Amino acid sequence: MAEPAEVQRPLTLEAYLEEEARSPVRHELVRGFPRAMAGASRRHNLLVVALVAALFPRAREKGCRVHAETFKLKVAPDTVYYPDLMVVCGPPGENPFLEERPCLVLEVLSPSTEAQDRWEKMRAYLNLESLQAYLLLDPERKGLEGYFREGKGFSLKRYAGGQVPLPCLDMSLDLEAIYSALD
């Protein structure tokens, strides 16, 4: 007779943070269950670095923090993601290993995570009261889709080039300059 399969139980946030601190592999926590993260492509990484370089000076000037790829964002009591980039302008929370109130989140799309970024993460991010914009950059098509807070909801805007407003930093992102990192 076969052994019964072990039933996995959801992790608490505290258990997840303890396990993540010891793990050589990063995991996101989705509704209590850890999900291993894949590595990024060169194009993906170059875009993230270009974004950090473009946003960091203004964020620092405004007293905001910029986190890229390796810092956690808690979006629900049982869900934690590692956004490609987030900007947080409020005071830090009590937990030094995660943020909870970003004003801006950016994800660079990749074939392995695009569906999660467009649907699962988008729904979670847009529920954050502090969020003013959620941006998706495509490293292959050189474009950007942005969800911008308007009143109690968000509006979708697409950009193929030009300047993209970043509301919480009171600046614009020059798409041509960002994508020049891929040349």
Order of helices and strands: HEEHEEEEEEHEEEEEH
CATH architecture: Alpha-Beta Complex
Instruction: Provide the low-confidence segments as ranges.
Output: none
So what's the CATH class? Alpha Beta
Task: Give the number of domains.
Answer: 1
The CATH H-level superfamily is tt1808, chain A
End-to-end C-alpha gap: 60 Å
Tell how many strands the DSSP assignment holds.
13
Helix coverage percent? 25-40%
Mean pLDDT: 92
The fraction of residues assigned to DSSP E strands is 25-35%
Gyration radius, to the nearest Å? 17 Å
Shape: globular
The third-level CATH topology is tt1808, chain A
Q: Spatial order of the strands in the main sheet? A: 3-6-8-9-10-11
Structural class: alpha+beta
- Discrete helix count: 4
Main β-sheet: number of strands, strand sense, barrel status? 6 strands, mixed
Describe what this molecule looks like in 3D.
It is a single chain. With 183 residues, the protein is an alpha+beta fold. It has a single domain (38-182), classed as Alpha-Beta Complex (tt1808, chain A). Helices cover 26% and strands 33% of the residues. It is built from four helices and 13 strands. The longest helix is centred in the first third of the chain and has 20 residues, at 42-61. The termini are far apart. One of its GO terms (molecular function) is endonuclease activity. Keywords: Endonuclease, Hydrolase, Nuclease. Residues 14-169 form the Putative restriction endonuclease domain. InterPro entries: Nuclease_put_TT1808 (IPR012296), Restrct_endonuc-II-like (IPR011335), Uma2 (IPR008538).
